[in-house]
Fold:
Amino acid sequence: MVDILHKVGIKSSSPNDAYKALTTREGLSAWWTIDTRGDSKVGGVLLFRFGDGGFDMKVLEFQPAKRVLWQVLDGPQEWIGTKISFDLKQEGDWTIVLFKHHGWKEPVEFMYHCSTKWAVFLLSLKSLLETGKGAPWPNEFKLDGWEEAAPRASTTAAA
Amino acid sequence: MVDILHKVGIKSSSPNDAYKALTTREGLSAWWTIDTRGDSKVGGVLLFRFGDGGFDMKVLEFQPAKRVLWQVLDGPQEWIGTKISFDLKQEGDWTIVLFKHHGWKEPVEFMYHCSTKWAVFLLSLKSLLETGKGAPWPNEFKLDGWEEAAPRASTTAAA
Structure:
């Protein structure tokens, strides 16, 4: 089992504002993908779409201003069953987001890609909370040819 | 043991150009830190400085246009003994960089920070090779309060 870990600090925000950006469709669609659907409550399923592909996430845990935990129900094969958590805390002027995407079976090349891509989206979350403007899909920073041709998630269909 | 993994694609570059950016002081100082010193050859030691702190890396492996491997001799305690590799390949119009920082003993919070920070610097490498301009320290994108006060590496002194 290998994990993707990230940390960003958000200036002059609050764990509560970060929590809102992670638990409301409006918030999620402002930093991850504009095409965010579904039911953002414990036991509910959120649908994140990136053109042809995407992820279905079951909400496992919501602790206001503290923690969010999802589990991947559907999406690229490598993601299914993995869990994604966001832990929030305040440190001085900074709201800290500790991100973990855990339960990957193997460190395949797609995992390398997803790790860097999560960083890109977490910087979008940071920007949203600091400036009011994130860069959700389809306007996020592109990393490589996989994304130029089509969202990588769509290759699941070929798997 | 836990690893930090990343992948970036660089458009209209070549594995050879990426290799130069990873193996010459001129290249390294244009995307990682402007204060890069030492001897960039197998068996040599490179000194990367970020103000008060930094990393000393022994060069373990150079495979032209293919692979670079360093081992950390000195720096923050958590880094000592870890290894950092860059694997290069061409895929169509894209030069692919697969990055691995391996040998972390524990997934401490500093590892979360370093993971995201490596993404920031790899995006700087991508920018350098695509546009001629990277964002090395001290002009890199800042992630959190650790960096605002002083480079995190300097806290080693307190460890």
